[in-house]
Amino acid sequence: MTRIVIFANGNLSEPDKLRRRLRPTDRIFCADGGTVHALALGLTPELIIGDFDSLPPNLMAGMKAAGVNFQRHPARKDQTDLELAFQTAVAEGVDEILLVTALGGRLDQMLANIFLLARPEYASVRLTLVDGSQSATVLGSHQTLTLTGQPGDTLSLVPLTPTVQQVNLSGVEWPLVEATLTFGSTWSISNAFTTPQATVQIGEGMVLVVHIETNERLSE
Fold it and tell me: Which residues lie closer than 8 Å to 165 by C-beta, 6 or more apart?
């Protein structure tokens, strides 16, 4: 499975945990200042995308010397650097995109980064956002997701469409069978794993599946 990891210009939290999630075969794309976080993990990006207003000139020079590709865009544009990076990654025809260092800082940009995952034109790609011990994956109509964790891990379903129908959830303290979730409801927040795996299946709609590891795993 081909995966592109996109580094955004948010906060780098718990770098050791992020390192453990990365694969040797990952392709690394950076949205402008996200390059700083990739370099902090010892990674050389394949491509840097943006208007380069948040990428220090010395780092840009170093990346050019290392043969890294750049995709430059004007400062006055209609998309954020991260959205442009997503468009480029999706056009590569990959199976999965992992978004990292996308949270923290400005509330508007943080929310936009999360909702960017729900754009319908990205539905063919498995999209996951990772921040420390938290991960969030978009699940669309007629899709199934099995998560590996441990009893006590938190699992929440956040509806992204007005309704999410025929929701089945197993391996948790409060399972769901053919349930309907509604946008803005907190009914499906803070469930808990009871087995090493939990499975989510939906019929129609779109939901953000959030998995938070337990404190015991955080200390490992």
Answer: 180, 202, 203, 204, 205
Report whether pLDDT(220) > 50: no
Query: Helix or strand or coil: residue 89?
Result: helix
Judgement on whether residues 154 and 122 belong to the same structural domain of the protein = no
Integer Cα distance of 169 and 68 in angstroms: 43
Boundary-marking domain end, from 106, 132, 158: 132
**Token pair 């718990």 in the structure block, residue:** 14
Task: Report the domain count for the chain.
Answer: 2
- Domain CATH number, residue 202: 3.40.50.10240
| Burial label, 149 (beta-carbon count in 10 A; 0-12, 13-18, 19+) | buried
pLDDT, tens digit, for every residue of 59-80?
A: 888 888 888 899 998 888 888 9
Same-domain pairing of 102 and 125: yes
Band of residue 106 on the pLDDT scale cut at 50, 70, 90: confident
